[in-house]
Amino acid sequence: MDLNNISSLTPILIVLIVGLAVLLGDSCSKSWRSRPFLNWGLSLLGLAAAAVSVLAQFEPFNQGLFFGNAIAVDSFSVTCHLILLMAAAFAVLLAMTYLENKKLNHGEYYVLVLFSTAGAMLMASANELILLFVSIEILSVSLYILSGFARTNNKSEEAALKYFLLGAFAAGFLLFGIALIYGGSAGAAMGAAPDRTPIPGGTTVLTSLAMFLNETGRPTVMLMAGVALLIVGLGFKAALVPFHMWTPDVYEGAPTSVTAYMSAAAKIGAFAAILRVFNSLVPIAPYWMIAIQVLAVFTMFGGNILAIMQDNIKRMLAYSSIAHAGYLLVAVVSATGGKPDTYQTAFGAMTFYLFAYTLMTMGSFGVLILLSKRGRDIQTMNDLKGLARTDPFAAYAMLIFMLSLGGIPPAMGFIGKWFIFNSALNAGQLGLAIALALASIISIYYYLRVISMMCFQEPDNKTRLEYAVSSGGVWVTVVLTAAASLLLGILPNLVSFLLNSAETITRVKW
Amino acid sequence: MPQAPPYILTLLTFIPLFAALILALLFKKSNDLPDEHHHEGSDDDQHGEAPTDKPIPKDGRRTAINGFAIFVSVVQFALSILLFMSFNPGLNEPKTGNMQFIETADWIKLSGMNVQYKMGVDGISILLILLTTFLMLLCVMFSGATRQRHKEFMVFLLFLETGMIGVFCALDLVLFYVFWEAMLIPMYFLIGIFGHENRLYAAVKFFIYTFAGSIFMLIAIVWTYSVTKSFDLLALTDLKDPAGGGLAQYLTANPRAAIMMFGSFALAFAIKVPMFPFHTWLPDAHVEAPTAGSVILAGVMLKMGTYGFVRFCLPLFPEQSRATSGIFITLAIIGIVYGSLVAAVQTDAKKLVAYSSVAHLGFVVLGIFSFTQVGMMGALIQNINHGISTPMLFFLVGMLYDRRHTRKISEFGGLKMVTPLMATLLLIAVLSSIAVPFFNGFVGEFPILLGSFVSMKTGYWPTAIAASGMIWSAVYMLWWFQRLMLGPVTKTANRKLPDLRATEFAVLWPLAGLVFWIGLGSHFWTSRMETSVNNLIPVAADETDETLPMGQKLMAARRGESSVQNTSQRGRSVKDQFSDLIKQKGDPTVKSARPPAAGGGGGQPGGAPGGGNSEQQTPNPNSSQSPRRNPPISEPTRDNDQPVSSPPDTGSPANPNVPAPKTPDASVPGNPGGDTP
Fold first, then answer.
1. Minimal Cβ distance to B219: which of A409, A434, A452
2. What is the dihedral of CA B289, B292, B297, B298, to 10 degrees?
3. Could you list the residue range(s) of the whole structural domain that residue B486 is in?
């Protein structure tokens, strides 16, 4: 194990080590516990340090496959890492006083956020299916605990249990699928040089799998069964319809800062993994493409139609996040099903949309946190009534997020949607583009409903909110995400690196 | 000729945005006045005593906000007048046509895409910009007394102005789309916050309807890009440009894709116009919106639909527009008759005006899709006319509402005695809307009907049905006026209504002045758009039927053989171009190139038709005065529709090409409409 291998993991290691440091400090030292700023301060510092080391990996010299091809460091993983670190930083900022108000301000929160971030980062880098499984479990176990973090709240406990049970079930699918893929790719693993006689068994390394499939061209039945189970397992993580049942309950029950983090980080990790896995399955794309296309249509329409009926705003945002997963699947289809020369556009659209989605979804949950009363969260749409008169700042920030989620210019969500349209048409997926258009028309209705509640209704005295002690962290998050959603919608050139995310990814030319 | 400052279009577009931000952030909000609008249902009989218009209490903040907004609007209006004065109507460059004040900068350069910040105006958009700033000034003046959330109202109005001017200036498809969509947000707020009882429903309906249309336009824009690698409108409509040539080739080779792309654009614009089956958002939005909102909706926003047809659909998809013109003409005529009939039975004074818009915009669409120069010119002038008469009607209805807090026609009657000034101005607006001669409506609707009559796309009977719309408009408008203003005063509440206040009169008289200016001096306005219209419908692509004596005369006038023209006088430079044109038309090589080329498209199926197309284009930049659009593209399509008709050239004595009438027969089997796989 040489130094190169270790250095490929630097960002993830930094996050993990800082997490351990916070854990040790918080649990071992009383004086540490009396200074809560140490927790979030150290976490933010660690995330910043990790971001710096990620930046170093943008240099192609530092990229490649490490640890026996298990870890891929390429433009795609690096871009995903940056988005994940940003999401984690927002999660820390959002939690600072929110947890204190709920009397939940324990160091574990920050530890778990850091651990799950490390897991999600590993997912984005995993070039090996077993490693992918392990990293998914790191992410998921942390999220199970986080969603039950409000121990005294029944809903939170229910969310955690539900998430855990269904998650464990999905993990079974995933693992079995990996085993089947290993069996189905028998003959893929090459012996050591020089004779290169095939050794028995298959491979779980994605790049080898891609090469193997490229040579054989036809998958075995066992391999296809494995791929199907893999779709189920990953689809659960990404909350695709029909594997989405846990999402609204968990989003509703978990503390809002956890919901915000979960909605972004789990989605980024899951889609990074999905894209990397299916990128290696491109040689047999005709065999599974239809499944992804159907899932995309179901997810877009299912999420949006169910969101219309919600009165609880957190549930509405949960269904809206399902719909956004559908939009992202359109980019996945375009990235894997298109012509060989257009996949880069689709990867770029994917990472750009993930970035935009992180900003707008964490921003809108941030507004909910900003408005939460001491000990009680914003629950129904009615709680937002007349917000433009009682708290114009929060209302207009929410307006930006809603427009961005709806994909209306000049917000960033529009640019993201436009890029997805672009990649879909480049890949010849006109039908999916039309489905995406129809789904966004549906989605407009419930985003407008929020705006209408906030801006067009007069506040009832009953629903007038007593605000929690305003928190610097939440405020900073909302301002940053709102400003970025607007600014990057007008000048998307500033984040052009997001669109070059496929520059150095390994891709089999078939 | 005054010189406009550089970047004037950017200034015009973004001054309101910055003013809105300054207003939102630096000004303190004014005190709300007691709310009279929102808590009153339509059961107004309980108000025995008419609410007299109480003077607005002095409020320094309100004055400051009003002053600032009016100042910005005046600056905008002055800038647009400056733009208008320094506009050169005769300019006709080979690449940019009549487009002027072009500004270009790179905007989004990502993943190989190049979206430009490209702005420019021609004779069509400049009038609409002038109309926008003018109406905006009136709206700001009128809305100074907004009772609740006054500051927000002004902020949204100014945001709206940025979006509207941006739409009329944008020459890049994505830039256009961004303005087109962004404009919805302030309008949504104007309806949703400041509207009447049913405002939430109307606001959402308005937004979703428009969004539903435009999201498909976004797909079509992206599709266009994936074919041509360009978003630049001027490049896309220039056949000599690789982008424009590529688009034409692609559209010819893929007729189904072409129809889908054209349909996506057309749907967005048809909803905005709104054309007949898509019009249902309009009565709701117009009725529920506050007065200034209705004025902007009717005055400017509806024009964006027709503007979109003229600016995007026709130049980008010439063949498709012509092939489907029958659909649009039918829908337009249905819109005219249906809108008029529904308007006639309304009991709500504002709803009647709203439905009258459906009818009037039907005329505009009819004029556009007649594909004759006269019809197009009339349509564009009618566009402006409707932007003057309908806002005037909405202002007056709004003033009546402010006095009586009801819009029911039956609540009024005999107001002529009580408010004579108001009655006079309302009569002017009504007559303008009916299109009585000397009023502006006439100079718009008459050329439309003339163009429709001589056009081979419409013909006699459709025009006759459309013309009945003028009678219907007299029916519902005069009856409406009679029920509001004439007869005895039946309601006690109306006895003491105050006549127009000074601010109200100040809003109305400029509109009344314009009614007569356009009605009596239309050439001043039409001469600005002449070059643009000629570029849009070159002589060779004019659908005028020359078997009709009137058509012959019109076409002769177009070719410059006679100086008489019905609708307009020609500018000097245009005349020169026409004489050049005649010289070139005499060139026999140019003429003889045509008949085989018409069939050439079908002779080479597959990838070839486009190539054949561009081959046949080559003589055209010389033969037609407009190099930007290829006229012959339309010819085969026309042959398809009207196999017996002769090409327009044959009627011209200057045309030496006598055997031309055979052309249709030769090209029928091989026209592009027929080579669909």
1. A434
2. 110
3. 324-537
